[in-house]
Amino acid sequence: MAMRVQLDAQAWSRSRFATSAAIEILGVLRHRTHHPAAHARHWYTRTRQTLTPTQLALLQALIPTDHSYTPDFLTPVPRPGETMQDVAARIAATPPEEVDYQLDIAIRGRRVWPHVLALHPSQAAYERWRRPIPTALETAARKGGATVATMAATAMATLFETVLTPHWPRIQAIANADISNRADKMATHGAAAVLDELGERMQWTGTELVLERTYSGTIDWAHEGILFVPATTHVGPVLFAAEHPHPPMLIYRARGIATLDERPTDTTETALAGLIGATRAALLTTLDTPASTAELSQKTGWSNATVSYHLGILLRARLVDRHRRGRIVRYTRTTLGTALANSPAQENAAPASQLPPTARTDTPTDPAVNHRPNLPNRN
Predict the structure, then answer these.
(1) CATH class belonging to 268-344
(2) Tens digit of pLDDT for each residue in 186-225?
(3) Neighbours of 114 (CB within 10 A)
(4) Where is this region: Disordered (predicted)?
(5) Between residues 283 and 142, which one has the greater pLDDT?
(6) Which of the chain's termini has less CB crowding within 10 Å, N or C?
């Protein structure tokens, strides 16, 4: 049994790399307290503390620990320069019929689509592969696909803002280092050399990419190549996602994730976040070198407006300074800001209630993306 991605040398040459905040979230929820990486287990603990019971139950129902399939609408194909707010907007705007279709694929008792059934050896094998619907998902699904998408988008955006935000610059640094390493190898030895490193269940024949799976199918729309997506929370073999008409994705574990566990997460970052807010703490710790609003936006994944707003607060608090060179304005930490960012745990930190609350990020406004997935995407 195998998935076959029709891919000639010209299409291979268009293959590229991308990062995805949504896929990082998926890894945290997929493995939960059993994740082999300490940083991901810590993030899941924080997730349980910050999400409402309803939000947590819905995300865990959509991202099960004991099944290989996760609905595609939770992890849209990454776009250059996209923030988590943009991703949440795309998730929320998923057409209801698309959400319903993706739930049909893996939920027992829902509609059976003939072309999905045809991917499996028999109807009995397909029904064994499907899973019962969890209560939290059943409750939301009764209200329709739009409700499921909106609730999931809100929960994922909240998780990112409250849990991953302080760590996002480091996550991106690790992913970018991995991408740089593999891109160099791809340029020197070809894309097949990168595949050899990622796992033994894939091979490129020169005309197609063959991935061993528990079902069979053919992808004939990979004209723009493959999208390689490193993630610091991924565990196990490479995941494969195919969503017509977008480039298929190969999701794999990034190198260097051990550095996320080098520093206790409950000391400086937590104390600093309690003192000035998680968003401003992340910006302050990111400013090891001077950076413009646009550069900070790219590093953190927040919009320019969000970064500018919080930089203004840090500027008024004299924790950062700004300098203009030509048309570019760059921000630097002041002596006080550096001392605060590099200090040990703030034992005498003022309670967050005595300080201005961290502003919520701007409301997503990206238009809907009308994807029509037609293959089970995870195994």
Answers:
(1) mainly alpha
(2) 777 776 777 777 776 788 888 888 888 777 788 888 888 8
(3) 6
(4) 339-379
(5) 142
(6) N
d(C-alpha 359, C-alpha 350), whole Å:
18
Token pair listed for 374: 């037609």
- Judge whether 175 and 19 are in contact, CB under 8 Å: yes
360 dihedral zone (left: phi>0; alpha: psi -120 to 50; beta): beta
pLDDT band at 269, cuts 50/70/90? very low
CB 63, CB 70: distance < 8 Å: yes
Token match 């019929």: residue?
97
Place of tokens 């949440």: 88
90's CB contacts (< 8 A; 6+ apart) are 76, 366, 368, 369
> What are the residue boundaries of the structural domains of the chain, listed by start?
1-263+374-379, 268-344
Query: Which of the four pLDDT bands, split at 50, 70 and 90, describes residue 270?
Result: low
Neighbour-count burial of 124, counting CB atoms closer than 10 A to its CB (0-12 exposed, 13-18 middle, 19+ buried): exposed
8 A C-beta contact, residue 42 and residue 54: no
H or E element in which residue 196 lies: helix 191-198
Q: What is the DSSP track for 317-354?
A: TTSEEEEEETTEEEEEE-HHHHHHHHSS--TTPPPGGG
286 in helix, strand or coil? helix
DSSP β-bridge partners for residue 239: 251
- Using alpha carbons only, what angle is made at residue 371 by residues 12 and 43, rounded to the nearest 5 degrees? 85
Query: Is the pTM of the predicted complex or chain greater than 0.85?
Result: no
